[in-house]
Amino acid sequence: MNTSLRRASTLLLVTIAFLVGCSSSPPISNRGQMGESELSFYVEDDQAYVSGVLDSSLPQQLTQLIKSHPNVTDLVLVDIPGSLDQAATIEGARMIRRLGLNTHIARTGYVLSGGVDLFLGGVKRTIGPGAGVGVHSWYDAKEWGSEVNLADPVHASYVNFYLAMGVPERFYWFTLNAAPSERVYFLSPEEFYDYELVTD
Length: 200
Prior knowledge:
single chain, 200 residues, 8-stranded mixed sheet, 39% helix
């Protein structure tokens, strides 16, 4: 991430933190593991701003969010550095789709790794100017996704998810080779449209 993008993202986070501090209702949150940033939701009108690492509590937190704020129509992803529980992330994305919610990556915000999968759950998906979308190969503590036999059912589970979200299968294969799991490849605006990540 370049310096100006990092600064702008930090400024946006500080602004949201200030708004959360001034809110009459506290954000729904859960502390991430291993010192990672806390997953939190801040609601303003019909938008819920989402920040932090996705974890196993995501489906429960989304359920609580909609129960408490049934007027929410859009999830604005501010800074999502990844996921600690991919199954919960996929479940959350499917829930977003079932609920008919839209997703938007905030201006100069970012989604990385599993955060991209959450973004894909939106019925309508938009990306703000200067936002970062980062992908890489998954790694399951035993092997890289790019090294797993092409016939392995694990690939089909990812492909089926992307197809259900309206994203071409080739996007999955692209992510496996874009970067190893310890690095991130940031997509260009042209690639947002080429891989049909955005709907508008």
